[in-house]
Amino acid sequence: MSEEKQTVAGAYAKMSAHEDLCAERYDRINETLSDLKMGAKWIIGLLVALLGWFAIQVWDGQKAAIAAAAIRPAAEPVVASPRDASFVVATKSVGGEQ
Hints:
Shape: rod-shaped
Largest sheet: none
Structural class: mainly alpha
Distance between the termini: 132 Å
Order of helices and strands: H
Oligomer: single chain
Number of strands: 0
């Protein structure tokens, strides 16, 4: 009977040691996941900052194009009076006769 108690006590001791080892492993896994999450947050923040910078560059380019268009005067339409205009009418016959 004492052998059974030692076997049971030994099994409990092994299970306790195993639980302690697993708890330590889970702690290390959680630390690693926390580090990965922090790294992902940094990468997302960097991407958002780059996107904002790109949007500002595009906006500045558009503002320059808008300002250049506003500075140029619009071309005034040329209106000719019917008396000043000379018209040339070209005719082309359809078919073989001219």
